[in-house]
Automatic annotation (TrEMBL):
InterPro entries: Gram-neg_bact_OMP (IPR050298), Gram_neg_porin_domain (IPR033900), Porin_dom_sf (IPR023614), Porin_Gram-ve (IPR001702), Porin_Neis (IPR002299). This is Porin. The keyword Signal applies. It comes from the Bacteria. Keywords: Cell outer membrane, Ion transport, Membrane, Porin, Signal, Transmembrane, Transmembrane beta strand, Transport. Homotrimer. It is a multi-pass membrane protein. CDD domains: gram_neg_porins. PANTHER family: MAJOR OUTER MEMBRANE PROTEIN P.IA, PROTEIN YDDL-RELATED. The keyword Transport applies. It is found in: Cell outer membrane. Residues 1-22 form the signal peptide. Its main location: membrane.
Length: 305
C-alpha cells in the first residue's frame, strides 16, 4: 500500500513539474516619473507626473509542438498618487502557432501598434495622441496577426459592438521590417481604422537608420464617421546616439479642413545609466489656432524590469 501511494505521489509530482515547465511566465514593469513645469494654456505650474507607469505579467504555455497559449494582463500604476492606483491596459488571451496569432480581450489596435518606435516621446506630453486620433486601446477585441513572410506581416483588430445600438469596427495594418531596427534597417507600415472610437483613420509610417541617425516619418488623415472634422497631418522625428547619450527631436502637424491648424515640437535627451534605467529631459511646445498654446519642460527617470 505504501509503495502504491509513493508511486501515485511521484506520478502527480511529475505531472505538475511537466505542467510548470511547459509554461513561460514573466513579471515585468516600468516606472516613468517626471518633475516638470507645465502650462496647459492657463499659466504654468509644477507637477510630479507618472507617465504611463505599469506592471504586468505575460507568457506562453506550450500545448504541443505546433500550438501555444499566449496571455497578458497589464495595469497602469499611478506612481504620483493623483489618480486611481491601478487602471487597465492590454489584457488578453489567445493562441499562436504556424497560422499566426489570435488574441481576445482588451488590446491596442493594429493601427496604434503600426507606429513602431517612430514616436520618440511616447507617454510624455509630446505623444502623438495630443494632436491625432488613432491611439486606441479597445475593449471587446479580436486581433489576428499573420506569420511574417519575407519581412511582411498583416494584422486586423475587430471590435465587437457589445450592444444592440452600436456598430462593429475594425482596424487593419500591413507592416514590413523590424520595429526595433535590429534585424532590418527599415521599418514601414500602412494602417487604417474604420469607425474606431468614432473616427475613420489612415496612417503611413516609416523609420530607418541613415548615417548614424534614426529617422522617422508618419502621415495621417482622419475624419469623424459623420464626415466632419477632416484632418491631414505629418510627423518627422530624428534620434542620434553618442555612447550612452541619445539626442532626439520631433515635429508634428494637424491641419483641419476648416483652417484650424495645430503643430507640436519636442526636443529632448536620454542618458542611459544601465540597460534598465535612463534619465531624460524634454521641452514640448504646442501651437494651437483655436485653443490655448501649451508648453512643458521636464526631467525624469525611466526604470524597467
Amino acid at each position: 500500500m505504501k509503495l502504491s501511494k509513493s508511486i501515485v505521489n511521484i506520478a502527480l509530482f511529475s505531472a505538475l513539474s511537466l505542467n510548470v515547465l511547459a509554461a513561460d511566465v514573466s513579471f515585468y514593469g516600468k516606472a516613468n516619473v517626471s518633475a516638470q513645469s507645465s502650462d496647459d494654456g492657463e499659466g504654468s505650474y509644477t507637477e510630479i507626473k507618472s507617465n504611463s507607469s505599469r506592471i504586468g505579467f505575460k507568457g506562453t504555455h506550450t500545448l504541443s509542438d505546433e500550438l501555444e497559449v499566449i496571455y497578458q494582463a497589464e495595469f497602469q500604476v499611478d506612481i504620483d498618487g493623483d489618480g486611481d492606483t491601478f487602471s487597465q491596459r492590454n489584457q488578453y488571451i489567445g493562441l499562436q502557432g504556424v497560422f499566426g496569432q489570435v488574441l481576445l480581450g482588451k488590446n491596442d489596435t493594429v493601427l496604434k501598434q503600426s507606429q513602431g518606435k517612430v514616436d520618440l516621446f511616447n507617454d510624455l506630453n509630446g505623444d502623438i495622441k495630443t494632436l491625432w486620433k488613432g491611439e486606441n486601446r479597445m475593449s471587446d477585441t479580436i486581433t489576428y496577426k499573420s506569420p511574417k513572410f519575407s519581412g511582411f506581416q498583416a494584422g486586423i483588430t475587430y471590435i465587437v459592438a457589445d450592444s444592440v445600438d452600436a456598430e462593429d469596427a475594425y482596424s487593419l495594418a500591413l507592416s514590413y521590417g523590424d520595429k526595433n531596427l535590429k534585424k532590418a534597417k527599415v521599418y514601414a507600415a500602412i494602417a487604417m481604422d474604420s469607425e474606431v472610437n468614432g473616427y475613420d483613420t489612415m496612417r503611413v509610417t516609416m523609420q530607418s537608420k541613415v548615417a548614424g541617425f534614426i529617422l522617422g516619418a508618419m502621415v495621417q488623415s482622419q475624419e469623424k464617421i459623420d464626415g466632419s472634422a477632416e484632418m491631414d497631418g505629418a510627423l518627422v522625428s530624428a534620434k542620434y546616439v553618442i555612447d550612452n547619450l541619445s539626442l532626439k527631436g520631433q515635429f508634428q502637424t494637424a491641419n483641419y479642413d476648416d483652417g484650424d491648424d495645430k503643430s507640436g515640437f519636442t526636443a529632448g535627451a536620454d542618458y542611459k545609466l544601465s540597460n534598465s534605467t535612463k534619465l531624460y529631459g524634454f521641452y514640448t511646445t504646442f501651437d494651437m489656432d483655436s485653443s490655448s498654446d501649451q508648453d512643458y519642460l521636464g526631467v525624469g527617470i525611466d526604470y524597467q524590469f
